[in-house]
């Protein structure tokens, strides 16, 4: 038995989950927020609903990690640092370098740094987490799990934009996708639930959270995904526009007299459901509560429409589909959203069992006769991270 910790480090946060492996039991989990600011918040959840929380100044990630390890001992969750034998880090962008999770060494760190140009808010923050753990627990296996890696299997026709080819060759402008760890997890679970080898299946996975992406998974591999060069592309999201005509940008920049940074800020933070509802909310719960309002109704219709069209296009891209999976905050919790999306797919022979659709948790929600099965699968990216650490352990020297 060994204890493995899954880490998601943000620029001012550190989210973690401690597992007993290979049992895959969550022993404790928590969050450090406002790192580098006043009144950082440090939370640990453990045992049978126990919670430890303290508000104090935590100036950097290394101090956050030290505090975390010490607190795990203090709370009798660990006897000593030595009990943690592996750490896995979520890394948003691996560029074209990584098609799977890897043991972190100096070369991996240099590459994560190099591709930080594609994820300037995320990769530098992940590196802070990686370095802090390396410093405090230098002898244990440390693994990077990339959000982009699952999409490395996309064929050229899916990942290249119709731009001059030199921009791909010289500057690596292409589709990278995101949420890969989630799409990988739910597609594997779907194959397990359908009791069929994943190599025989065509699955469309819908990760619908604040950010959302749809992926076409053929024979266990991502063959296309809705997010692009950045997570701005694809479906309508909480605050992101998703796909739009690029020519809108210069037109609006002139009209509003704003620069490109402000334009991108609008597309990332003020658009999507929030923008369509005139700033009412980006949160699906609020919108469902207000769906009698005309703007909200239109916003929701657009949300359903974009997702449905991606699903339709991925049926075409894979020449069929065996299953559609719903996951993440909206996908897991909103029966109404699932129902509205699937309503427009009856031509494909998709039919929901509304009694099953109304229930929570991992299960099949389509009727027995539905040509394409529909599954609700709560995602578990942290577990995937812990599993990847275990899978790489034998190659760790
Ligand atoms: P993130 O992308 O931040 O990880 P999540 O996967 O946590 O996002 O999803 C957040 C979204 O899930 C929000 O829009 C929230 O409203 C939505 N959500 C959570 N619970 C429900 C629910 N019961 N009904 C509808 N939407 C929900």
Automatic annotation (TrEMBL):
InterPro entries: Ac/propionate_kinase, Aliphatic_acid_kin_short-chain, Aliphatic_acid_kinase_CS, ATPase_NBD
Keyword Transferase: yes
Keywords: ATP-binding, Cytoplasm, Kinase, Magnesium, Metal-binding, Nucleotide-binding, Transferase
Catalytic activity: acetate + ATP = acetyl phosphate + ADP
CDD domains (alphabetical): ASKHA_NBD_AcK_PK (cd24010)
Record-listed E.C. numbers: 2.7.2.1
Name of the molecule in the record: Acetate kinase
Organism: Enterococcus italicus (strain DSM 15952 / CCUG 50447 / LMG 22039 / TP 1.5)
């Amino acid at each position: 038995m060994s204890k493995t910790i899954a880490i998601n480090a943000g620029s001012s946060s550190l989210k973690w989950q401690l597992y007993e492996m290979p049992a895959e039991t969550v022993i404790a989990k928590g969050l450090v927020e406002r790192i580098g600011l006043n009144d950082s918040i440090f939370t640990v959840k453990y045992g049978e609903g126990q919670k430890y929380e303290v508000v104090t100044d935590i100036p950097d990630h290394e101090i956050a990690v030290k505090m975390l390890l010490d607190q795990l001992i203090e709370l009798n969750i660990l006897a000593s640092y030595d009990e943690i034998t592996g750490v896995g880090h979520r890394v948003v962008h691996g560029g074209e370098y990584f098609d799977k999770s890897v043991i972190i060494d100096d070369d991996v760190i240099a590459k994560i740094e190099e591709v930080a140009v594609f994820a300037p808010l995320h990769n530098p923050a992940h590196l802070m987490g990686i370095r802090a753990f390396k410093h405090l627990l230098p002898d244990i296996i440390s693994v990077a799990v990339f959000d982009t890696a699952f999409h490395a299997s996309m064929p050229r026709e899916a990942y290249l934009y119709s731009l001059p080819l030199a921009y791909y060759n010289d500057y690596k402008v292409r589709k990278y996708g995101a949420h890969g760890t989630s799409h990988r997890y739910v597609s594997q679970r779907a194959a397990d639930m359908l009791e069929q080898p994943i190599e025989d299946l065509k699955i469309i996975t819908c990760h619908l959270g604040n950010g959302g992406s749809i992926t076409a998974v053929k024979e266990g591999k991502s063959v296309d995904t809705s997010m692009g060069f950045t997570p701005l592309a694809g479906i309508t999201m909480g605050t992101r526009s998703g796909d739009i005509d690029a020519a809108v940008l210069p037109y609006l920049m002139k009209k509003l007299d704003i620069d490109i940074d402000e334009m991108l800020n609008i597309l990332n933070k003020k658009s999507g459901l929030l923008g369509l509802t005139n700033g009412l909310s980006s949160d699906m719960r609020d919108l469902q509560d207000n769906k009698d309002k005309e703007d909200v109704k239109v916003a929701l219709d657009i949300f359903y429409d974009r997702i449905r069209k991606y699903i339709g296009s991925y049926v075409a891209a894979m020449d069929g589909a065996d299953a559609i999976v719903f996951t993440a905050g909206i996908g897991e919790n909103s029966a109404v959203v699932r129902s509205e999306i699937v309503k427009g797919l009856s031509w494909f022979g998709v039919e929901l069992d509304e009694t099953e659709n109304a229930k929570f948790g991992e299960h099949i929600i389509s009727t027995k006769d539905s040509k394409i099965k529909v599954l609700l699968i709560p995602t578990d990216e942290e577990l995937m991270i812990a599993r990847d650490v275990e899978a790489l352990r034998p190659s760790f020297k």
